[in-house]
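Researcher: Good morning. I'm working through a list of sequences from a screen, and I'd like to move beyond sequence-only analysis. For each chain I'm collecting a predicted structure so we can compare shapes side by side. This is the next one on the list. No need for commentary yet; just the structure.
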Amino acid sequence: MRYLLTIITILGGFLSVQAQDSYTVKVKIDNPKKYTMYLAFPSGDDYTIDTSYVIENGWAVFKGKVEEPVLASLGYRGNPASIIQSDMGFIPGPSLSFFLSNTTIEVTGTVDQVHMAKVKGGKENKEWASIKEQQNLIEDQNWSGLKKAYETFAVSKDSSVFKEATSISQANSEKNLALQKNFIKAHPHSLVSMYFLSTLINDLSLDDLKTQFNALDQQHKNSNYALAIQSKIASMEATAIGRQAIALQKVDVNGQPVNLETLKGKYVLLDFWGSWCGPCRDSHPHLRELYSKYQSHGLEIVGIAHEQRSSLEDNKRIWKKAIADDQMTWIQVLNNEGIAQFDAVKAYGITAFPTKILLDQEGKIIARYVGESAQFDEKIKEIFGF
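Model: Good morning. Structure tokens for this chain:
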């Protein structure tokens, strides 16, 4: 009898371990019109979008395996309640975010508010639950406000209706930021904290990012979220104020090498942009004014474009067209060309467009600006005295 119990105990433990080698996501969502459901999550360098679920006892069931817990999203295609139609196309609504790990996870809710669905199962989701409901409400408020604004605009064509939605979104962003920061402090051992910190890397100073990262649990330091933070820290250190600018290793529109060394003696503005980036294109008329005003006094601009088409040929075409359309006469390079050998966007830690990095006459970094900034104009006036 003791021998039998031992075998059962060992077998039970073995089966328990085996059960954790894969995930089972069980979904019970009120979906009367049978919209197509998907489960999406990062997988190595790719992104998996799974629509292959089976129905078991009234549950839609996804099965698979992940190498580590990852942030996943669950949503539905074709549901008009989950999109906003506009003159420019459509805007997708929020999906449900949760951590996917090799365990059983249950999701319950309604199709029109899938982002508000309840999630049960998984260590990370249990930890996240302390603030997840508040975050869901924030997201729902943002989405409802945006939908209302577009519905009103469709009738009135008055763009001022977006002011209220923008104001609500900005206030909610501050609330969400506070929730995340408090969670990180309260849960230093949670992978969720590492994920939250990875989303804040553009909002924190180098010292603050390093301090918060070092305070988190070592067991998560090899996660993809930790690696993203470490990469950001490395690029911030390499491009910190006072550091020598990294050599570009790129060619201009005529195929000629661009060497920052040859520009020493001038103040050089590195302008990271893309033809697809509205704020980037909007900034170009002002850059033309500055270039016309200060070029003869020692200002040079190097535009570093990063395009998003699938082929280098297409990227070159739309890049050159944008240069011509925006009448940019300063030095231009395309990051996509030779990106396997040198990725300027990655080397300089660019995570938002436009980003401007200002170099002094010795080629050292003296300022960095993300988006439009009045401080940039003030700095230029300070340098040249007018």
